[in-house]
Design brief:
Elements (H helix, E strand, L loop, with lengths): L9 E6 L2 E6 L10 H16 L5 E6 L4 E3 L21 H4 L10 E5 L2 E3 L3 H4 L4 E5 L3 E3 L11 H6 L5 H10 L5 E2 H6 L5 E3 L4 H13 L3 H14 L4 H22 L14
Parallel strand pairs: 2-3, 3-5, 4-6, 5-7, 6-8, 7-10
Antiparallel strand pairs: 1-2, 8-9
Length: 261
């Protein structure tokens, strides 16, 4: 694995069981290039193997954009053989890298195209109230496929198709994203990072075996018929709950003061 201090396109910080990864190419609207693909693949391997990490926050530097997809000037490396080429999301997405630790994505500004590689595989997405979401592919004569297929697992199909087919002629507002469940919460831009960190610490305080088992059971169920998913889910409770019960005794347990969303 790489040394996180050598990352050139992202910033990596770890504290209190939370890893915060900041896309750090604001001059390029945080578009991803080959180096970012390689660095994110390294991040996910590091996160997956480090049991001290309970939660990951993905956010972005600069005030204009979370990410606008692939850097069209630099691109990314692909084999000449068409059948050996891979989706860049294989490097960017936590689930594609078999990371079952909860991921919180904090978005702001422009959130376009390939940015959805992160959104589609995150567990909680919160947004700044200035966020706008759009897909430029069809406007440039390109088939929009990978990002909307992932997005169709999160929001109604009609919203996915409108987002993909209207292209650059329309942007989805932060308020609309909240209405359809793409984001679960909106905050002012200057409060976004603090709120993401607050949520991460709440989740990180939970027993990690329980949170990771929950994440894995739910995500893997998306690829299974309902009955099979229920049977697999039962097995996960049988595997995970004895450990979870041992970690948290209900005797003397102090319930947290809940908040209403």
């Amino acid at each position: 694995m790489l040394d996180p201090s050598t990352y050139g396109t992202i910033q990596y910080a770890a504290a209190e069981h939370v890893v915060t990864v900041t896309l750090n190419r604001p001059e390029r609207l945080n578009a991803f290039n080959q180096q970012m693909l390689e660095e994110f693949a390294d991040v996910w391997q590091r996160v997956r193997l480090d049991d001290d990490v309970h939660v990951v926050v993905v956010r972005a530097a600069g005030d204009r954009a979370f990410c606008t997809g692939v850097d069209v000037q630099e691109g990314f490396e692909q084999p000449a053989n068409l059948w050996s080429q891979e989706d860049p999301g294989a490097a960017l997405g936590p689930r594609s890298n078999r990371v079952w630790k909860p991921v919180i994505c904090a978005v702001h500004g422009m959130v376009a195209g390939g940015a959805f590689y992160w959104l589609n595989e995150s567990d909680i997405i919160i947004g700044a109230d200035d966020a706008t979401f759009f897909d430029p592919h069809v406007s440039y004569g390109m088939t929009s496929s990978l990002e909307p297929i992932g997005l169709a697992r999160r929001i109604p199909i009609g919203e996915v198709l409108r987002w993909a087919l209207i292209g650059l002629d329309e942007r989805m507002s932060a308020q609309r994203a909240l209405q359809i469940g793409l984001v679960s919460e909106l905050v002012p831009y200057d409060q976004l990072w603090a709120r993401a960190d607050e949520l991460a610490k709440i989740v990180a305080a939970k027993p990690p075996a329980a949170t990771q088992g929950t994440v894995r059971a739910i995500w893997e169920s998306l690829d299974l018929p309902r009955t099979v998913a229920q049977q697999t889910g039962l097995a996960y409770t049988q595997i995970g709950n004895p450990l979870g019960t041992a970690e948290v005794s209900r005797t003397g347990f102090t319930k947290p003061k809940w908040t209403l969303r």
